[in-house]
Amino acid sequence: MKEPVLVLGATSAIARSTARAFAEKGYSLYLAGRDNEELERLASDFRLRYQIEVVCGVFDAEDYESHARFVEQVRSEAGGLKGVLLAFGYLGERKLAESDAKERVAVLARNLIGAVSLLEPLAACLEQQRSGFVIGISSVAGDRGRQSNYIYGAAKGGFTIYLQGLRGRLFHAGVRVVTIKAGFVDTAMTYGMPGLFLVASPEYVGKRIVQALERGSDVAYIPWFWRYIMLVLKLVPESLFKRLKL
Fold it and tell me: What pTM was computed for the model?
């Protein structure tokens, strides 16, 4: 098999769209997630539609002890990797997370701990082969702690910092690390949320993620205007920011 792009969380809306954008450019794919039946359906569609090689694998982001074995499985089946797209996450219920330990741990586990646990053995593989890329989908929510989503924001902020450090580590091995800071995206995770604005489609986001990789970006805000929205928010003094209902 030609070295594939490993898509972690492949059944999510953003992952599907990004995988499609890779497929349109002829990349082979290794689709990974929890729902094997859905993965196989997606793989069959990509094989037929784009005439590319696609394989599937099952993993659980919160089963940390299984991550090293999963990475070995990927290496065994794929040989090497063109790159990795980490596209899984969990928004959670804000009010529930404030009062329920299980919910807030789930938000932290799925967005940060599971991501780091999986990416470390994958980073070692890419470092050893001295080529490839890692794309991590973070969020503008991690740029500043807002009262409306500070637990999710803390997880994504931690993930952003992790990717920044990983970028420095892998740079010396010729491996690129791209941080995607996504704004509001029209997915099942955000459906019905109050106060959404400037919502992007998964298709738009997927194409821009691949574009960011091709342009050599280290960090990409998607859509682009979130860079300036978050810059303004980061400049607001804490004495004023804490009074804002954001």
Answer: 0.93
